[in-house]
Amino acid sequence: MYHTPIAPRVRKRSRPTEAGVPRRDEVKFEDVRLYLVERKMGRSRRSFLTQLARSKGFIVEDILSDAVTHVVSEESQASSLWKWLKESAPKNLPNMHVLDISWFTDSMKEGRPVAVETRHLIPDSLPGGSTPTAVAPVSQYACQRRTTTENNNKIITDAFEVLAESYEFNEIEGPCLAFRRAASVLKSLPWAVCSLEATLDLPCLGEHTKAVIDEILQCGRAFEVEKILSDERYQTLKLFTSVFGVGPKTAEKWYRRGLRSFSDVLADHSVQLNRMQQTGFLHYGDISRAVSKAEARALRNIIDEAVHAIAPDAVLALTGGFRRGKEFGHDVDFIVTTTELGKEESLLPRIIRRLTKQGILLYCDYQASTFDMSKLPSYRFEAMDHFAKCFLILRLEGSQVEEGLHIAEGDSRGWRAVRVDLVSPPMDRYAFALLGWSGSRQFERDLRRFARVERHMLLDNHALYDKTKKEFLAATTEKDIFAHLGLEYIEPWQRNA
Ligand code: DCT
Ligand code: MG
After folding, report:
1. Is residue 452 within 8 Å of 458, Cβ to Cβ?
2. Taking the domains of the chain in order of start, what are their residue ranges?
3. Protein residue closest via CA to atom 23 of ligand 1
4. Into which CATH architecture does domain 291-484 fall?
5. Which residues are annotated as a binding site for Mg(2+)?
6. Cellular location of this protein (predicted)?
7. At what angle do helices 154-169 and 173-187 cross, to 10 degrees?
8. Pairing of strands 471-472, 464-466
9. In the sheet where 457-459 sits, what is the strand order?
10. Model pTM?
């Protein structure tokens, strides 16, 4: 169990606790009534924490009565705590949150009762003990799970991703999505799956996914996945789509033409490469190589300097995989805007001019804004948002990267090309754009699906629309959006679904 002492233990015996409702301290949270369990906590610490909570406007009850809503304990043995709670037998026990001290600590830090999350709960481990406060089952929605970059089931999720990609290449949408969802569920688990029985209560795992898991558990690999990996069509489409500007459709076209390698493509005079694909081939080595966190930091400095030289009131935020705490990414994503509404329109063209003058702009695809609030919410379910954006390739010098460039051994150029995306929403759309661009893709998909299916709302990178109330819901932070959706806030580093 997770314990966070919030203050040094008070050694002195303090005055006995006073009546439940604080006398001098103003009550701010009428609906929340705490009870601090003295067992293990000790009397003096309990008294100290009681006074702390009351000073922050919380009601702390002295007796475990039916009025209590939140029971807080420092007991590390859940079974012994639950035995005592049941013996104390308040009638309302099934409706009380039984929480460890982390909930209390978080609430004191925030100065308000924070939403109860699964990690705060002390589950009833006694036989037959399944109160509403027991550990919540894994949700079918990625936006109700916490998924860090630590993946305990990588062998299985890698296999699922190969299968999903193969279905994608064959344009078979259902199983593709099913394998992506299943992979996402397994990524969220704080434990490694080591038997099929362990997956019984997990959502999004169908017969096919379970058969693959079973085979991997028994043989260390799945025949179906091995077959795909050695399939010529899969290998070729994978190779072609690794080029910047080449999607599955183009890759398929080249494959059908009998092309199998880059030299085949480049030697074929009937193949017309667009500017993006030409650049993709030109910088293939660099762009297909992962970008490191240190390189992302160096790029942030470059963009930050450019943006602030142009607009002192500019706002710059790192988004995408690096915001989620990933060590490596395929590109670096930023949101840039200005606090003054409308001023953001000239921002990207000016940044582009500045980067050009600095001689570091190797490629630029600028797309002006087509955003029009009056057209919302009709833009739904489109892949891309309507904000101004640019897809860039920048030249990054080794001297600008603190830990040095992430380049191949023997590469002595002293620089590398890196993909950078900048998106520029108006400031009143900032929270939606930040949430939408932070990813992961699966997290975004499930946020939208959750909004639609569970809340009858439409969410995209521009806005949140409540179909029942027929109104847009305003948000200045991501937390506002989660709150509108009735979701616990998930930190960016927990969105690696
Ligand atoms: N995004 C999305 N749907 C897409 C493409 C992107 O929701 N079809 C969002 C989620 C992630 C964000 O935009 C940035 O996209 P990428 O850079 O492709 O993803 P990433 O998570 O940053 O991954 P990487 O580390 O590989 O760049
Ligand atoms: Mg990215």
Report:
1. yes
2. 16-120, 143-229, 232-282, 291-484
3. 321
4. 2-Layer Sandwich (3.30)
5. 331, 333, 421
6. Nucleus
7. 160
8. antiparallel
9. 457-459, 464-466, 471-472
10. 0.76
> 16-120 with 143-229: one CATH topology?
no
Spatial distance between the Cα atoms of 497 and 490, rounded to a whole number of angstroms: 11
Q: Which residue's structure tokens are 């000073």?
A: 55
Terminus-to-terminus CA distance in the chain, angstroms?
25
Classified by CATH at the fold level, domain 143-229 comes out as DNA polymerase; domain 1 (1.10.150)
- Tell the CATH topology of 232-282: DNA polymerase; domain 1 (1.10.150)
Residue with tokens 């040095």: 404
What is the CATH architecture of 16-120?
3-Layer(aba) Sandwich (3.40)
Q: Relative to the alpha carbon of 321, which ligand is closest?
A: 1
User: Which residues make up each annotated binding site?
Assistant: 331, 333, 421
Which residues contact residue 437 at a Cβ distance below 8 angstroms, ignoring those fewer than 6 apart?
A: 319, 320, 333, 335, 423, 461
Mean pLDDT by 10 residues, the chain (497 residues): 38 42 74 92 95 95 92 89 86 87 93 82 75 66 97 97 98 97 97 94 96 96 98 98 97 98 97 98 98 98 96 96 98 97 94 98 97 78 83 98 94 97 98 98 97 95 95 97 96 97
